[in-house]
Write a structure and sequence with these properties.
With about 250 residues, the chain is mainly beta. It is built from three helices and 13 strands, in the order αβαββββββββββββα. The strands form two sheets. A six-stranded antiparallel β-barrel has the order 8-9-10-13-12-11. Strands 2-3-4-7-6-5 form a six-stranded antiparallel beta barrel.
């Protein structure tokens, strides 16, 4: 009962922040085609994450967002923009996920809903084997906070154009705001953006990863520096196979 009250309180909090920014650095609203694929995940321990619909009843997110020991719900908004809690029938985290190593591991999970969502527009997965290079541009869309530590500043899908830095690989991609390069505060993921989809836009938007962690400027604690991404290259076969078991063909 206490967990349900917490979930309800988190959902109700979203009523007051529908017009707030999400992602730090003044990110703009996500394009409609992408924004309609974004969902909010709330947990009975008070956590909030982002997910992306792969089907009307299947959501992709980060595995560390749905750890065992808590109850989780999807928040869907009705036509009047009132938040409604939707039940999750099954949670499947990648079998090799290790919560202690989620920065460079299989930080991916699928959520099977008890009933299809009414107002989502599912997004497409990217293909395996697409090469990534420093300077490549991506769009990250999340529903997290705009001000670090201020939960009321989250809840709306916003998007940030970020670029890859370092040596993008199959275990981890690091993104930063090209205007600040992670050296001063800029665009980036923050609390509530974990699990957010990372899109390669051209020629059509496809998901190539999910947000796993973030830093402040200069690798400090916080947000607005680096956005850490778990690429899906190594996990696409598991995602599609697990989706099929759950009744979805991707």
């Amino acid at each position: 009962m206490r967990g349900m009250r917490m979930l309800t309180a988190l959902a109700c909090l979203l009523i007051s922040c529908l017009e707030a920014l999400a992602m730090v650095g003044g990110a703009k609203p996500a394009p409609d085609a992408i924004g309609r694929s974004i969902v909010v995940i709330v947990g009975s321990h008070g956590n909030s994450c982002t997910g992306v619909a792969l089907a009307r009843d299947l959501v992709l997110t980060a595995a560390h967002c749905v750890l065992p020991g808590a109850d989780y719900k999807i928040v869907e908004f009705d036509a009047a923009r009132r938040p409604l809690l939707r039940d999750i029938a099954s949670i499947r985290a990648h079998p090799t996920f290790d919560p202690k190593k989620h920065r460079a591991g299989a930080d991916v999970a699928l959520l099977k809903l008890a009933a299809p969502l009414a107002r989502v527009a599912p997004a497409a997965l990217g293909s395996a084997g697409s090469a990534l290079a420093p300077g490549d541009a991506f769009l990250v869309a999340g529903s997290g906070v705009a001000i670090n530590g201020d939960g009321k500043s989250g809840g709306t899908a916003r998007a940030a154009a970020l670029v890859a830095t370092g040596k993008p690989g199959t275990l981890q991609i690091r993104l930063f705001d090209p205007a600040t390069k992670g050296e001063s505060a800029g665009l980036g993921a923050c609390n509530g953006d974990s699990g957010a989809p990372v899109f390669r836009i051209a020629p059509n938007p496809v998901i190539i990863g999910v947000v796993s962690w973030s830093t402040g400027p200069g690798n400090s604690a916080g947000c607005g520096g680096l956005t850490g991404v778990t690429p899906l290259t190594l996990y696409l076969e598991w995602i599609r196979g697990t989706a099929k078991i759950l009744g979805n063909q991707l």
